[in-house]
Amino acid sequence: MSDSILLSVEGGLARVTFNRPAYLNAMDFEMGQRWRDVAHEVTSDASVGAVLLDAAGPAFCAGGDVVAMATSGAAGAQITGAAHIIHDGIRTFVESDKPIVAAVQGAVAGGGLGLMLTADYIVASEKSTFVSKYANIGLTPDLGVSTLLPAAIGQRRALQLLLQDITIDAETALDWGLVTEVAAPDAVASRAAEVARFWLDNATAAFGQAKRLIRTGAARAFADNLADEASTIGTRFETDESRLRVAAFAAASRKRATS
């Protein structure tokens, strides 16, 4: 089994770890295939209630491994094929019903932005930095960046990041909405784990469905979203977990009303 991405599942939590620290976790051809395979494995595992995405080493992800691409002798068609494979994994995670939290340290560059934005909740180190660099080497956005980045920070700021040679710090990323919260470097992992544990200790399936509705809704007609919402809440209402939680909520509401 490849060790470019590590996967462990324990107590309902799937931990997915980028593991090419010597290359700043840049994704080469093999790692891209591993990413796709892990995405399908995790999202089809009924025992998984939440996902934690993190990385080994000083950087989160430097995007695609441009050196590997340049020295492989690959033609444009092969680069397109590799992108499709990685995109399969991104789409699988984004459209799944598994809530995903990312623990982000160090640099995030190029396609690493898209891989980071696969997560629904992002805890970043106060030392993290974020940069595009696509156009600097004559390439164009991939790994979901052209869709996920403007969805997170708006089209105008996405264009600013992609069309200028700027690097933003964690404070700016938080202000722009690129990350959810910022923590001290030594607290990022524990905070991300705390977020995942909150989901798992509560109605994680409901959190996952809420994530799915938001993520898939942007690409559909409003009427289709309403139909999906109605079907999803009806299905959840029929579960034993929801019945117990709804009953507890109703009892607490009655007690407050009579006290």
UniProtKB/TrEMBL annotation:
<dbReference type="InterPro" id="IPR018376">
    <property type="entry name" value="Enoyl-CoA_hyd/isom_CS"/>
</dbReference>
<dbReference type="Pfam" id="PF00378">
    <property type="entry name" value="ECH_1"/>
</dbReference>
<dbReference type="InterPro" id="IPR001753">
    <property type="entry name" value="Enoyl-CoA_hydra/iso"/>
</dbReference>
<keyword id="KW-0413">Isomerase</keyword>
<comment type="similarity">
    <text>Belongs to the enoyl-CoA hydratase/isomerase family.</text>
</comment>
<dbReference type="InterPro" id="IPR029045">
    <property type="entry name" value="ClpP/crotonase-like_dom_sf"/>
</dbReference>
<dbReference type="GO" id="GO:0008300">
    <property type="term" value="P:isoprenoid catabolic process"/>
</dbReference>
<dbReference type="InterPro" id="IPR051683">
    <property type="entry name" value="Enoyl-CoA_Hydratase/Isomerase"/>
</dbReference>
<protein>
    <submittedName>
        <fullName>Enoyl-CoA hydratase/isomerase family protein</fullName>
    </submittedName>
</protein>
<dbReference type="GO" id="GO:0016853">
    <property type="term" value="F:isomerase activity"/>
</dbReference>
